[in-house]
Amino acid sequence: MSKKKKDSKPNISPLATLRPRIDAFLRRSDFATTAETMLKTDIDALAQGVKPEQFLAVLLPLYSVSRSVPALETVVPAWLSERQYQRALQDFLAKEDPEFRIYDFARAWLEQAGGDISALEATVAARNKPLFYKAFAHSEHVLKNSWQGLVVVTWYTDTRRHKIQGLSILVDHNPPWHGAAKDLMLLPVMHPVELEHSFLGHWRKRMSALDEISASEAKTLIIRSLETNRKQNIRLPKDLVAASQMFHKQVLALDDAPDTPLFTMEDFELLSKTGRSAEMIWSEERTVGRRITGSDGREIFIDADTANEMMDWDEDGGISPAFLNSLEPTERQNLMKSLENIERWNPKNVSAMSTEDIIAQLRAFGVEFDHEQFMRDVQGAYSVVTIGDNFQESSMAVLEPGNQFFFVSAAEILWEHLAPDVPRAEQLTDDVDEGYDFVEDGDSVGAVEQWLVVWEQFKHLLDVKAQYHRSSSTSLTKKIKQLFKHESDTMKSVEEAGIAFASITPLEVWLEEVSMELANAGLEDVSWYSKRLHFLEEVLQRFPKSNAEFLCAMHRDEAETYFRLGNAAEGERLFQSLVQEYPDDVWHYIRWGDQYTREKDVKLNDYDRAEKIYRMALERDLDDDDTKYVTERLENLEKERIA
Which of 152, 180, 292, 306 has its CA 20 to 30 A from that of 505? Predict the structure, then answer.
């Protein structure tokens, strides 16, 4: 006899029906006649099976719309206290309504429920405080002789301080600006070490020195420029207006200096709507002409074609006659002499000189050149720049503008002439750049073939210098060790070893990119995974005292590579070790879970295992961005399951 089939009922999550159930609850008309204990029981039924933070995330927005349930103003705080929801409510308010404008009633609930209001306010204050990194501005000597200045503010994008972002405000000192903010550029999210090589390096190439300044100094300079916008009746640039929230949090929230002008977001909003358009003014400057202030203080009108020529330097370092004519005779003479000497002492011209002539010129510039000492110095130096700087520091002469460029060129050519077999960092630069050309063409194999040769040469460079440092005590070797704080004769971190890497790309960024391209090459030929594992093991062995972020990235790549080589057990062990040591790093969980969702390896696909790992991350104290990364993974996982 067959058994009667049971009626099947859909298994619906309480969270899926929470909104309509709370909405119906708030629309009840019997609150006044219902006992408090019964109302608490009804709220219990609503919250059953739902996490506290999820329940509050639905309840508070719905309640904020009604705000007409007096009977609940005492019931809900009592219920929150009895169910110990104070911490969940505190976290919700700090995250969703830090200024308590929408859920002011919930702040009162928290206080009535015995929640820690001071802790809430401290959390909000800490969350609103900008994570300032560094600020920069043009040096005074640049501002005195320049049409434009720059103020840069950078901040950390996450509380663990892994990445930074920034904004730079361009200030024009000519009429009609007279120091007003002319334009804004947002710096992309980057690693802190990239700032030095990318953005600041760009400005140094343009011979525009940027000095590091304090947060309050940066705020003062920026607000002064905005005050000038108001004085000159020039509306704020559109890009700055679009970044108003960023300006509010990352600039206006910085500490004041004693001389910081009073400036509010109301002032900002007013300047965003009134005055002449900044974009219209600089458009006219490009198409019609502009006014500049001459050396005698007079305003000079220059047509657009001439003005554009003045901004364009040719390949030989020349500058337009119009600009030269605007300078005083002494200023013009110094500028021309500087340009002449820069051209005279470029490496191409110095390479045409004999060794004897280069040495004679060094002595003419007050450098007591000694052949044996030079040979000892190049053995310990990583770069020709080190030797060139040493020449310049030892010079006893008063130099004409531009003559300082001779020292590095002389160091480079003398190194080639006298010590061609001694390795130097500059020899690696072209090969590194060529590898990036392969990457741009989508040729990962070509890139790693090139870069693994560079890696071998780089190791050789480090080893040769380390061996010399162990047996030498020259003044330059001592200076190198003192400057870079070597704990031993061998560099143990990527930060230290970065001085021996002449590419514009920071060493740790390049090493991570080598690993990434090795993984891409492995998709074409699995043998590259073995080479990747060997590379990672060497990097970790050589630089064990590197920063934690870099070491974590290398260990994650190592664990992933074991998976791709078919050794899932070792990959599991390494990922488990990572999450034990750094349990709040979300990328350990993401990369670990990703190993079980690879479409090309169906044998390894295990969606349940992947979900379990991803959800381990959600148990940690993640910021909003990290939570978003994990939830996106979980959503994609569900799509893959359905597919």
Answer: 152
**Which residues have C-beta within 8 Å of that of residue 205, sequence separation ≥ 6?**
none
Q: Which among 506, 372, 531 is positioned nearest to 448, based on CA atoms?
A: 531
Long-range pairs, 428-436, Cβ under 8 A, ≥24: 428/454, 428/457, 428/458, 428/461, 428/501, 428/502, 428/503, 429/502, 429/503, 431/457, 432/503, 432/505, 432/510, 433/503, 436/505
Local structure of 148: helix, strand or coil: strand
Strands (E), 461-505: none
The residues pairing with 79 across neighbouring beta strands, listed in sequence order, are none
DSSP letter (8 states) at residue 499: G
Strands (E), 130-279: 132-138, 148-156, 164-172, 180-190, 210-213
- For residue 494, the surrounding DSSP H or E stretch is helix 494-497
Of the candidates 237, 73, 220, 215, the residue with the CA atom closest to the CA atom of residue 132: 215
For the record, the structure tokens of 311 come out as 């901004």
CB within 8 Å of 420: residues ≥ 6 apart: none
Strand partners, 138: 210
**Distance (Å, rounded) from C-alpha 289 to C-alpha 425?**
46
CA gap 411, 406 in Å, rounded: 9
CA dist list (Å): 585 to 378, 410, 414, 618: 42, 48, 49, 11
Most distant CA pair in the chain, distance: 114
Answer whether 0.85 is exceeded by the pTM.
no
Please name every residue paired with 303 in a beta bridge, in sequence order, or none if there are none: 289
Residue type, 182: K
CA distance 420 to 415: 6
Q: How many helices (H) and strands (E) does the chain have?
A: 34, 7
* Residue whose pair of structure tokens reads 């004409």 in the numeric block: 400
Tokens of 183: 């334009």
Q: How many residues does the chain have?
A: 643
Side by side, which strands form the sheet with 148-156?
180-190, 164-172, 148-156, 132-138, 210-213
| Angle between the N-to-C axes of helices 371-380 and 475-484, in degrees from 0 to 180, rounded to the nearest 10 | 30
Residue 41 C-alpha from the chain's centroid:
51
Token pair recorded at residue 258: 């004693």
> What number of other Cβ atoms are within 10 A of residue 13's Cβ?
9
Cβ(256)–Cβ(294) below 8 Å: no
Expressed in angstroms, the distance from the first to the final Cα of the chain is 40
- How many angstroms separate the CA atoms of 463 and 458, rounded? 9
Nearest to 195 by CA among 133, 149, 146, 251: 133
Token code pair at residue 335: 């500028």
CA 350 to centroid of chain Cα atoms: 38
Which of the residues in the chain have pLDDT under 70? 1-15, 66-68, 98-101, 122-130, 139-147, 158-162, 193-194, 196-209, 287-289, 293-329, 331-332, 334-336, 338-339, 469-490, 502-504, 598-604, 642-643
Distance (Å, whole) CA 618 – CA 52: 15
Is residue 516 a contact partner of residue 553, using CB atoms and an 8 Å limit? no
Which two three-digit tokens encode residue 309?
């020529």
- CA 302 vs. chain centroid, Å, equals 39
Q: Is the peptide bond before 98 cis (omega within 30 degrees of 0)?
A: no
Sorted by sequence, the CB contacts under 8 Å of residue 374 that are 6+ apart come out as: 387, 414, 418
Give the β-pairing of 210-213 and 180-190.
Answer: unpaired
Structure token pair of residue 404? 């300082």
Q: Which residues pair with 211 in a beta bridge?
A: 137
> Tens digits of per-residue pLDDT, 507-516?
888 899 899 9
